[in-house]
Design brief:
single chain, about 80 residues, mainly alpha
């Protein structure tokens, strides 16, 4: 998770630097990538938690984690549609 945060910070910083040099196309790609990675990091963590609980054969927490991931995706879909 720390690595993902650092990568996102580099992408956002690079995008901001390129934006100040009038390279708008490349800056937009870097900024969008950094923001997208920051949004995906909690979802990746939830997926890792589900795998961990599955290895521990803790079905209750696997179901809870999958339910939370489902709610996150449903919220994203509703946000895109509306």
């Amino acid at each position: 998770m720390r690595v993902g945060t650092v990568v996102a910070a580099f992408l956002l910083t690079g995008g901001a630097v390129l934006l100040s040099t009038q390279m708008v196309g490349a800056a937009t790609v870097l900024l969008a990538g950094g923001c997208g990675l920051l949004i995906l990091l909690p979802v990746i963590r939830l997926a890792m938690m589900a795998i961990h609980f599955a290895r521990l054969t803790d079905k209750r927490f696997v179901l809870i984690t999958i339910a939370v991931v489902t709610f996150v995706f449903m919220g994203g879909v509703v946000g895109v549609v509306l």
